[in-house]
Amino acid sequence: MTSSFHGPVAVARGSSIEQVSSLSESDHVTQLTLCRGALGEGNEAEVKAERQRLSAEMDSLTSYMDELWKLRRGYDERGEVPTGEQLKALKPGGATAKGQEHDAQGADGSLSELPTERLRVRRRSIVTQLTRKRNLLRYQQPTACGVENVMPDCPLRVKTERQIASLTEELTRVEYELARRG
């Protein structure tokens, strides 16, 4: 139980924790990212489908590893060894026995199902995205620089303005939900 990630693994040999620790050691998510980047930015149906499949696989691995990290943290902080039921409840595809964790919103688009911490992280992410998109309109680059270079009327400007409107709406919903929770 002395290695960096394998604390619970020594106790729960052959479990899901061991499987994910080997995944993280092989850096599987990075490999998926490289594969997705190698596809290029084409809009052919096959490329789009493969890109979507790779993204979904990355998301499921990420949520799976998040669940395992909670078990690991419990072990590190309180010495709690994961029970067999906890390990069986995890599925390598990222789903838990209770249901699959969704990205920014729940299955029906409701934010009320997400934990408060995830909402806070989402809010910070949206604020960062909004800042970058506004900088694109003002400076034609994602970071602010000294000299303004306003983006001319073009398809990219229309697209960016639409994205800003959508992100602003989502930020309002997230902030409302956070305020509701107090």
Task: Walk me through what this model shows.
The protein is an all-alpha fold. It has seven helices and two strands. The protein has a two-stranded antiparallel ribbon. Helix 3 runs antiparallel to helix 4. It is extended, with a radius of gyration of 21 Å. The chain starts with 6 loop residues before the first helix and ends with a helix.
Query: How far apart lie the N and C ends?
Result: 41 Å
Q: Can you list the strand order of the major beta sheet?
A: 1-2
- Element pattern in H and E: HHHHHEEHH
Helix content range: 55-70%
Q: How much of the residues is beta strand, in percent?
A: under 5%
Total of DSSP H or I helical runs spanning 4+ residues: 7
Q: What oligomerization state is this entry in?
A: single chain
Biggest sheet, in brief? 2 strands, antiparallel
Shape: extended
Uncertain segments: 1-21, 94-108
Rg is 21 Å
Mean pLDDT reading: 74
Give the helix/strand class: mainly alpha
Q: Strand tally, please?
A: 2
Sum this structure up briefly.
With 182 residues, this protein is mostly helical. It has helices at 7-11, 16-26, 28-38, 45-78, 84-89, 116-139, 155-181; strands at 95-96, 99-100.
Features:
182 residues, mainly alpha, two-stranded antiparallel ribbon, 2% strand, extended, disordered N terminus
List strands and helices in order, with pairings:
Blueprint: H1 7-11, H2 16-26, H3 28-38, H4 45-78, H5 84-89, E1 95-96, E2 99-100, H6 116-139, H7 155-181
Helix pairs in contact: 3-4, 6-7
